[in-house]
């Protein structure tokens, strides 16, 4: 009860801070927009082995992957905001109060979930004129998957930020982790093109399953195994990531 | 995660009138040293013994790096001591940090407000983080805005505040939940003189309202003018504790400042003067001050001055100026540590 109240308190303040500096929306949306406009059209022949014959079908395959990568990268880089707040003494001011330590973490991670979902909605809307079609129920499930991904990656990012508490070190560390995750999830180019060993490696990447689930939902295959598999895998990983990060948070940020 | 349940401990009655509001015994903290060769540790705080009485302004005076902030952060539950014991407002620091949190307020040196929100918004949030309900939090915020004189800028973003305004808000945030003890870390660093005296006034006002205030400082005049009692800390340990008057009285006698002629060979002249005076029977201690000055600690200043003038003239050194002073807290620090606090 206290955890829920405190989390809500921290979350509200984080939303207020975000609303006061709305630049983040533009910054978060512009890069995926470039990929949507300048990169996706190249992919029609590439996605042919996956059944794309028109541009609309290309977007159908590309957009869910783009949303997944937007959320994964956005979440993994959110540790920077925590470093800023640590430096400004805002975290310390909270720590001398009896506020729940887990709430300090969850309130911030949930803010990131909201921010990334807002960006995902904007990208989805911008993709509609290109011929993207998706049913509302499928879309809502896809957003649920994205929300879990956002919670997981921001929890991981806060954990990393506590382990590597310096701006100059955090960026390369996060990049080093995020690059192979993105490449092995088949968001840039489909893994259908990949040699067998690379496909086998991708199957060990939980984010590959997330992207598979997203694509199944955007293709309207709600009953596809990839849907429940991805939700299950991502949910389990989210619980593990929050648990890990919370433990780190309560030992380092007592 | 276990810590998230801290405040679910049923609220204990605040001790009615405990005499010592802060009592520490051998509080210590060390950090792993940066040197890779050995697994050595650096003792940041070697063992602090303090007793702070209810309703006093207690000063923790020492040079930068002496361990003031580490001690303060231990007392405010931000870092866990390696050893020793402490009771704060009746709660045990090591076994019940959650209860300590509820009974203290803490203002860090750098504050801790967000730029984009206003003083009112920060005050309400702070009260809410202590578990205070919404309407009560608003009421307390209005009271704090009035008593800390924040009205003029209370709805502007914190980024627009002057140093003094920000500091007043920081202190208001530290006491919004009505703590028994307020910890302030170097509250007047970087403030201009008017803001500084305004902060002193706020601290004195809190004392008249019955709060116990623990303040760290490396300013001698602040310790002298503001604090009822002080402890002097150096190299992670307390070297003296008492009222400023008591401590100064321990330095028996007076201080005589001798200024020699400036110009070429001033350093040489003051060295010669020091050599000539060292053997004098009335001299307790002698320090060189700058190139052309001597600081003499003597039994009785008025009697010593004619004698030292004769000695200096005999050595062919006519002093330019001679001043008689009462010992200051810096003299106390110097006597206890062999160094001056002013050089820091």
UniProtKB/TrEMBL annotation, chain A:
InterPro entries xref list: ABC2_TM (IPR013525), ABC2_TM_bact-type (IPR047817), ABC_2_transport (IPR000412), Nod_factor_ABC_transporter (IPR051784)
Source taxon at top rank: Bacteria
Occurrences of domain ABC transmembrane type-2 (ranges): 23-252
Signal peptide positions (record): none
Main location: membrane
GO BP annotation list: response to antibiotic
Pfam families: ABC2_membrane
Record's bilayer topology term: Multi-pass membrane protein
Segments passing through the bilayer: 21-41, 61-84, 105-128, 140-164, 176-198, 226-246
Transmembrane recorded as keyword: yes
Molecular function per GO: ABC-type transporter activity
Keyword RNA-binding: no
Alphabetized UniProt keyword annotations: Antibiotic resistance, Cell membrane, Membrane, Transmembrane, Transmembrane helix, Transport
Family the entry assigns: Belongs to the ABC-2 integral membrane protein family.
Protein name: Transport permease protein
Upper classification of the organism: Bacteria, Bacillati, Actinomycetota, Actinomycetes, Kitasatosporales
């Amino acid at each position: 009860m206290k955890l829920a109240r405190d989390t809500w308190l921290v979350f509200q303040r984080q939303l207020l801070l975000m609303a006061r500096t709305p630049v983040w929306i533009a910054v978060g949306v512009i890069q995926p927009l470039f990929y949507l406009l300048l990169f996706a059209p190249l992919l029609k022949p590439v996605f042919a082995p996956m059944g794309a014959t028109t541009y609309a079908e290309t977007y159908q395959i590309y957009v869910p992957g783009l949303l997944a990568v937007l959320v994964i990268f956005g979440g993994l880089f959110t540790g920077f905001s925590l470093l800023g707040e640590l430096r400004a003494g805002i975290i310390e001011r909270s720590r001398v109060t009896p506020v729940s330590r887990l709430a300090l973490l969850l309130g911030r991670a949930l803010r990131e979930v909201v921010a990334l979902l807002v960006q995902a909605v904007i990208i989805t809307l911008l993709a509609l004129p290109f011929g993207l079609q998706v049913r509302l129920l499928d879309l809502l499930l896809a957003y649920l998957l994205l929300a879990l991904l956002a919670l997981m990656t921001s929890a991981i990012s806060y954990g990393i930020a506590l382990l590597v508490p310096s701006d100059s070190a955090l960026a390369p560390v996060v990049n080093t982790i995020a690059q192979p995750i993105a490449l092995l999830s088949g968001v840039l180019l489909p893994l259908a093109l990949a040699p067998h060993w690379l496909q086998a490696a991708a199957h060990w990447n939980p984010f590959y399953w997330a992207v598979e689930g997203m694509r199944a939902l955007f293709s309207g295959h709600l009953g596809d195994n990839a849907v429940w598999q991805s939700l299950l895998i991502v949910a389990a990983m989210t619980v593990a990531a929050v648990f890990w990060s919370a433990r780190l948070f309560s030992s380092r940020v007592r | 995660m276990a810590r998230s349940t801290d405040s679910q401990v049923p609220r204990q009655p605040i001790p009615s009138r405990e005499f010592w509001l802060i009592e520490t015994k051998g509080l210590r903290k060390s950090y792993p040293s940066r040197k890779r060769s050995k697994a050595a540790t650096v003792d940041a705080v070697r063992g602090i013994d303090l007793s702070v009485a209810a309703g006093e302004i207690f000063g923790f005076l020492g040079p930068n790096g002496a361990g003031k902030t580490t001690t303060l952060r231990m007392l405010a539950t931000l870092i866990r001591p390696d050893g020793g014991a402490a009771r704060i407002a009746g709660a045990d620091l090591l076994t019940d940090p959650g209860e300590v949190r509820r009974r203290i307020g803490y203002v860090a040196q750098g504050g801790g407000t967000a730029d984009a929100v206003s003083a009112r918004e920060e005050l309400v949030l702070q009260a809410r983080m202590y578990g205070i309900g919404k309407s009560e939090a608003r009421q307390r915020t209005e009271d704090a805005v009035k008593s800390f004189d924040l009205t003029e800028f209370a709805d502007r973003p914190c980024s627009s505040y002057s140093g003094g305004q920000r500091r007043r808000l920081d202190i208001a945030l530290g006491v919004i939940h009505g703590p028994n003890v307020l910890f302030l870390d170097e509250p007047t660093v970087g403030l201009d003189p008017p803001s500084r005296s305004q902060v002193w006034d706020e601290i004195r006002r809190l004392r008249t309202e019955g709060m116990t205030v623990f303040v760290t400082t490396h300013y001698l005049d602040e310790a002298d003018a503001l604090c009822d009692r002080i402890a002097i800390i150096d190299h992670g340990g307390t070297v003296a504790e008492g009222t400023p008057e008591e401590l100064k009285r321990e330095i028996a006698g007076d201080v005589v400042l001798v200024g020699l002629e400036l110009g070429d060979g001033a350093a040489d002249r003051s060295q010669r003067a020091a050599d000539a005076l060292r053997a004098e029977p009335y001299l307790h201690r002698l320090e060189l001050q700058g190139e052309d000055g001597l600081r003499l600690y003597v039994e009785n200043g008025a009697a010593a001055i004619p004698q030292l003038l004769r000695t200096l003239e005999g050595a062919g050194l006519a002093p330019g100026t001679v001043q008689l002073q009462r010992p200051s807290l810096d003299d106390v620090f110097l006597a206890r540590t062999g160094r001056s606090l002013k050089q820091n």
